[in-house]
Amino acid sequence: MSCKSDININPHFKKNVQELVQTHRFDAPVYVTRPHIPTLETYAKALSPAWERQWLTNDGILHTELELALAARFDVPSLRLFCNGTVALLTALLALDLEDGEVITTPFTFAATVNTLYWRRLRPVFCDIDPYSCNLDPAGIEAKITSKTRAILPVHVYGRPCDVESIQAIADRHGLPVLYDAAHAFDVEYKGRSLLHYGTLSMLSFHATKLFNTAEGGALASPNAQLHDPLKKLKNFGIEGEDTIIAPGINGKMSELHAALGLTQLENVGEEIEGRRRIAIYYNERLAAVSGLALPKFDSDTIKSNYAYYPLRVDGEAYGMNRNLLQLHLQEFNVHARRYFHPLCSTSSWCLVEPGRLPIAEKAAQEMLCLPLYGTLSLESAAVICDIIMQLGAIAHKTL
Ligand code: T4K
């Protein structure tokens, strides 16, 4: 078979794709995700206690209610809300007094994970990832630990749990804190309890693109209450009472408008997960027979998944076209799949790693494509998306 980059100039391929576009193009864009939102009436009702009190932020009652409800949901002794996940992560670095050293982390994540290190003059030391989970591979961590290492910052990518036991064993041997980026891990359980029970602190993101969202928002959770009070002060400029500034804190507070949105979501986030599960299982059934596509696995004996993403892995040779071309062609059908996570964080100019040093992550960044997955995506739409993917592969094989 010829090189799949020939596809765009091959007239037979083009003609066949155009014919498929005629019959399978969506009228409205199908995005990688859509936020789970209440009706405006429901939202207004949830917000009304704040309106009545004319109290919009700074520890409002809706904020407190959401904070307590989430702590109870995950059964953790400490959970603090933030204005977004990035500021939560930054505040965690401050709370753990991490500055001017090295942090061992993964290159296969959203830019925010690694960018926060820059703000504390911490140098990311990248370890390669596990080829299946795409999470930091514990096997590579110990060799990277030096006298300058201050912490380990793993990410539960796509909500798939990291190898938390191995990571904790390494951290304990070296006396290092573990700060999890759990932006994708809302409601994920490992061995019967929330994943947030692992590590020193875990950050959640409640961005509009997340399973549970407050438009913008985030949280820090911990299996112990040691940092519960300091975090409250640090996210409020580091002030204590009216007379003392205890640390160079930040404005990381979540407003009542955001908390109200979160409270409405809590009531039916289970339905959102169920809606996503139906689509993810359907994708798995329909796409299983397509050569060159590696499909995600979900729930297992030890893991309760949250179906936050549907990461499809594309082997270009076997499928008929590579991931980038598949993404481009899907756009012709108004299907907007996303290359989470490309580019790797290790390609940023401020922490550049030579190509070839992180081979497993580099391959994943070339091959992963997240398909549309959200609770209101209909099975009919998912069926059309599967048809398109199957037929694009077949056309590539037939015409090249
Ligand atoms: N760590 C990790 C591992 C993360 O994934 C993230 C965030 C963070 C840390 C930082 O947490 P935050 O500070 O954000 O709380 C999005 C999000 O902006 C970002 O929050 C998220 N990760 C990342 C994975 O995805 P983009 O550039 O893909 O967003 P955007 O605007 O292209 O949205 C994607 C699609 O979602 C759109 O095509 C349509 C749909 N969408 C989006 C928005 C904002 C809607 O339907 N409605 C909306 O309101 O980054």
Describe what you observe in this structure.
- By secondary structure, the protein is an alpha/beta fold.
- It has two domains: 2-36 and 269-399, Aspartate Aminotransferase, domain 1 (Alpha-Beta Complex), CATH 3.90.1150; 40-264, Aspartate Aminotransferase, domain 2, CATH 3.40.640.
- Helix content is 38%, strand content 14%.
- It has helices at residues 11-24, 40-53, 61-74, 85-95, 111-118, 164-174, 228-234, 256-266, 269-287, 316-319, 323-332, 359-367, 379-399; strands spanning 30-31, 78-82, 102-105, 123-126, 149-153, 179-181, 189-190, 193-194, 201-205, 218-222, 239-240, 244-245, 293-294, 303-304, 311-314, 335-336, 368-370.
- It has a four-stranded mixed sheet, sandwiched between helices. A three-stranded parallel sheet has the order 4-3-5, with helices on one face.
- Helix 5 (111-118) links the parallel strand 3 (102-105) and strand 4 (123-126).
- Helix 2 crosses helix 8 (256-266), helix 3 runs parallel beside helix 8 and helix 9 (269-287) runs parallel beside helix 13 (379-399).
- The longest helix has 21 residues, at 379-399.
- It is globular.
- It binds ligand T4K.
